[in-house]
Write a structure and sequence with these properties.
By secondary structure, this protein is an alpha+beta fold. It is built from 7 helices and 6 strands. Strand 1 and strand 2 form a beta hairpin.
């Protein structure tokens, strides 16, 4: 599956365009570099903080409040360098993410953070987790082909107000099953 910018543009013109474009991007990224848990974040660099705006696991990683952004290897690579951050071991993850033990407890030891870049600045990232060794250079390169579509989704989100909006349809929080069908 290759990025289709015409299709992404058509989705962007629809109601809830940010969520629809983002969903399209996730389909492509998942085909290129499958993730077992995906989240997305926006950045408020003036205040050195980030906020999760999409999650596939609301119990482990809910959307919502801003959290502190630290100057570390991740910051240098993604925010300043505008490049993806990847690791293939939990030891590499532990060097930059304070919640590395939680990541390991969930069964993940490999990650990729794909930056959305507009006007020379990172405005968001898609954050992917998988088993050890998963995010190889080939998978990373294939996922990066989706960067323009991801960036469009984040631009649309920022238009709606990234301080409070999410990349879930209609800003609905993901539903956590409570033992009901439907």
């Amino acid at each position: 599956m290759r990025p289709d910018l015409l299709h992404a543009h058509a989705l962007a013109a629809q109601p809830h365009g940010a969520a629809k474009v983002f969903s399209h991007a996730l389909e492509g990224i998942d085909a290129a570099a499958p993730s077992l848990l995906t989240t997305a974040s926006v950045y408020d660099l003036a205040n050195m903080r980030s906020r999760r705006v999409f999650t596939q696991d609301a119990a482990a990683y809910p959307t919502g409040n801003f959290k502190r952004l630290d100057r570390n290897l991740y910051y240098e690579r993604v925010i300043e360098g505008r490049q993806p951050f990847t690791s293939t071991t939990i030891e590499e993850i532990a060097t930059v993410f304070f919640d590395w033990e939680k990541i390991r407890a969930l069964g993940f030891e490999s990650n990729m953070n794909l930056p959305a870049i507009a006007d020379g600045q990172v405005i968001g990232t898609v954050n992917l987790l998988n088993r050890a060794g998963h995010f190889t250079p080939e998978r990373v390169a294939a996922a990066m082909e989706w960067q323009p579509v991801v960036t469009l989704a984040f631009l649309l989100l920022h238009q709606r107000g990234a301080e409070t909006a999410t990349l879930h349809p209609a800003d609905a929080q993901p539903q956590i099953a409570e033992g009901r069908e439907g």
